[in-house]
């Protein structure tokens, strides 16, 4: 009997050691066979860091949960950054769980997030890094269009940078444009100036695309583009309060049609939907017809008219533009765990949440000149599981999802570690 118990204790210890080796080195294991690239992004979806409200709701366990969640997400950021050595680290919005927190609580969460995202160490000293951090504004950061206020905008901008920003990077000799878009105020917004600022940036990108169509655009948007209900896990639900957006799963069909037609991004990287998704959008190059704009007597044609419209025009002629979008934008093709090849115009990846309930996911997005020579005409994509590889214009765009594992499994392992450290040695000592 003693021999069997001793054998079980040793086996328990061996399994525990193996599990801990994986836990602390999981990202390095994933990175072993990951191909090199010219430009790499690490992407982290919707951390939604909680705080005082959780402590009030759960006085007995709230502090423990916050501590475990902070260490869990910190491990995901730190391990994947160390393993994949990105040039850019992008948090995809919804950094905190609510935009309605006090100044003091906001600053406490801000300090915690800087540690979680591996910008400072436990002594609040900046960490050494060779990458650049970018942040997107989500609905839990500045609110939907109905609720965005000046202090939401100013507080986010002062701590995380501008809501709309762009930069150019040369990838193996060819310029690529990267743009982070304030998606929260693209659709109907109570304060018109915030919507005007968002659309001014969109118009700028549209003008750049028209002047320099040879420069590929990679677009970052917290809210995904519009899709039919079966393309991803979330249905396209939108609610309005006093005519302004109170909640939305996707951008409106009119806004999505504008972005696809007038910005023509090669890739869209979004957040918001915690489950993650991959979808291909196909746009007809020339509709060859016009659609009546309400009772105006005018006809809507492709880029000639649509790309010159103001947000107010998009609202006023919403029904006509939605009909136009239906005719010129094919239903999105989902890539959810199904291997396949698709011809597409814009490929969209919604990054799965880094939260523990979603496996502590991190996205790795690579760009490089295709090693297979010239790409076939058009744009092509293939998917295997959660990984997507796309080719366009002689360049390869790759997205891969890395998961640590559900936080409950990690918590069980921590308990098992405690048992292994305290109980097993004592048991072996008694049996010796």
Pick out its properties.
Calcineurin-like_PHP; hydrolase activity; 7-stranded mixed sheet; transmembrane; PGAP5/Cdc1/Ted1; 432 residues; 8-stranded mixed sheet; single chain; globular; 24% strand; alpha/beta
Describe the structure.
- The protein has 432 residues and is α/β, with parallel strands linked by helices.
- It has one domain (2-431).
- It is built from 12 helices and 19 strands.
- Strands 3-2-1-16-19-18-17-14 form an 8-stranded mixed sheet, with helices on one face.
- Strand 7 (238-241) and strand 8 (244-248) form a beta hairpin.
- The longest helix is centred in the first third of the chain and has 30 residues, at 2-31.
- The two termini are 13 Å apart.
Which shape, going by the Cα principal axes? globular
Proportion of beta-strand residues = 15-25%
Low-pLDDT residue spans: none
- Per DSSP, the total helix count is 12
Could you estimate the helical fraction of the residues in percent? 25-40%
Distance between the termini: 13 Å
How would you describe the oligomerization state of the chains in this entry? single chain
Radius of gyration (CA) equals: 24 Å
How many strand units? 19
Kindly report the spatial arrangement of strands forming the biggest sheet.
3-2-1-16-19-18-17-14
Q: What's the mean pLDDT score?
A: 88
Helical/strand content category: alpha/beta
Q: Biggest β-sheet: count, sense, barrel?
A: 8 strands, mixed
């Amino acid at each position: 009997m003693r021999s069997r118990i001793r054998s079980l204790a040793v086996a328990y210890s061996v399994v525990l050691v193996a599990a801990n080796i994986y836990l602390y080195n999981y990202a390095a294991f994933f990175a072993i066979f990951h191909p090199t690239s010219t430009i790499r992004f690490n992407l982290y979806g919707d951390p939604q860091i909680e705080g005082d409200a959780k402590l009030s709701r759960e006085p007995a366990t709230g502090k423990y949960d916050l501590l475990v969640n902070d260490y869990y997400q910190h491990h995901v950021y730190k391990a994947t950054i160390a393993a994949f050595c990105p040039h850019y680290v992008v948090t995809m919005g919804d950094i905190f769980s609510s935009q309605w927190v006090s100044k003091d609580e906001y600053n406490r969460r801000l300090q915690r997030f800087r540690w979680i995202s591996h910008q400072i160490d436990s002594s609040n000293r900046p960490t050494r890094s060779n990458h650049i951090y970018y942040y997107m504004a989500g609905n839990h950061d500045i609110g939907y269009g109905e609720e965005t206020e000046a202090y939401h905008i100013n507080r986010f901008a002062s701590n995380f940078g501008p809501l709309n920003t762009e930069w150019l990077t040369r990838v193996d000799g060819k310029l690529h444009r990267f743009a982070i878009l304030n998606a929260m105020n693209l659709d109907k917004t109570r304060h018109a100036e915030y919507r005007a600022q968002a659309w001014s940036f969109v118009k700028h990108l549209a003008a750049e695309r028209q002047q320099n169509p040879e420069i590929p655009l990679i677009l970052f948007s917290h809210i995904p583009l519009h899709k039919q209900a079966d393309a991803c896990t979330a249905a396209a639900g939108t609610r309005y309060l006093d005519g302004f957006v109170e909640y939305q799963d996707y951008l409106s069909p009119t806004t999505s049609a504008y972005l696809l037609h007038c910005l023509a991004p090669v890739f869209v990287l979004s957040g918001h939907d915690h489950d993650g998704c991959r979808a291909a959008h196909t746009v007809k190059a020339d509709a060859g017809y016009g659609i009546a704009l309400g009772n105006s007597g005018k006809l809507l044609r492709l880029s000639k008219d649509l790309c010159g419209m103001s947000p107010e025009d998009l609202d006023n002629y919403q029904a006509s533009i939605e009909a136009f979008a239906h005719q010129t934008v094919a239903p999105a093709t989902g890539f959810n765990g199904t291997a396949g090849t698709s011809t597409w115009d814009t490929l969209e990846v919604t990054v799965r949440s880094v939260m523990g309930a979603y496996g502590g996911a991190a996205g790795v997005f690579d760009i490089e000149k295709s090693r297979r020579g010239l790409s076939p005409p058009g744009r092509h994509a293939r998917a295997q599981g959660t990984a997507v590889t796309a080719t366009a214009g002689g360049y390869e765009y790759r997205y891969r999802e890395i998961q640590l594992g559900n936080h409950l499994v990690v918590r069980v392992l921590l308990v098992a570690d405690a048992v292994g450290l305290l109980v097993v040695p004592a048991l072996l000592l008694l049996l010796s």
